[in-house]
Design goal:
- This protein has 149 residues and is α+β, with helices and mostly antiparallel strands.
- It has a domain of 99 residues.
- Helix content is 30%, strand content 28%.
- A 6-stranded antiparallel sheet has the order 4-3-2-1-5-6.
């Protein structure tokens, strides 16, 4: 019986010893760990080759696709999408969707108007049977171009 109690005591001490070892303080990492979250004050850091992108594609009076992306004077990003099925995306959700789309763009301020329009229609997967297409882009160098069809 005494041997049994002694074995239990040793087992308990060993288990407790390893628990206290695992809970010892560990040195802090050599860098600060922070969570990155989008908010309405997300600052611009040259994501794309333009600082503003405003698209409006009208299909009928009551059917319009709209995209607005801009960096305001305080270098904060504003983004929203109004889709054809009346779904509206704003801020982080819109920025996340737009950044994927914008990264697919290959045009710049020197690209011909028809090529820009075709690329935007294709990249956004829009029906080319629209009434009007209006796009205004301000590029990194400050040049502003408008595209109409």
């Amino acid at each position: 019986m005494r041997a049994f109690l002694m074995m239990i005591s040793i087992f308990t001490l060993t288990a407790c010893g390893s628990e206290s070892y695992n809970q010892q303080a560990r040195p802090a990492p050599p860098f600060e760990i922070t969570d990155v979250h989008y908010n309405d004050s997300l600052e611009y850091d040259q994501f794309f080759n333009f600082t503003s992108f405003h698209l409006k594609v009208d299909y009928r009076e009551d059917l319009t696709f709209t995209v607005n992306y801009e960096i305001d004077p305080a270098n904060q990003i504003k983004a929203n999408i109004e889709e054809l099925n009346n779904v509206e995306l704003r801020d982080e959700e819109a920025f996340n969707q737009l950044s994927t789309t914008f990264n697919g763009f290959t045009f710049n301020e020197y690209t011909k108007e028809d090529e820009v329009i075709d690329e935007v229609i294709e990249t956004f997967d829009l029906d080319p049977d629209f009434n009007t297409f209006e796009l205004a882009v301000e590029y990194e160098n400050g040049e502003r171009n408008s595209y109409y069809k």
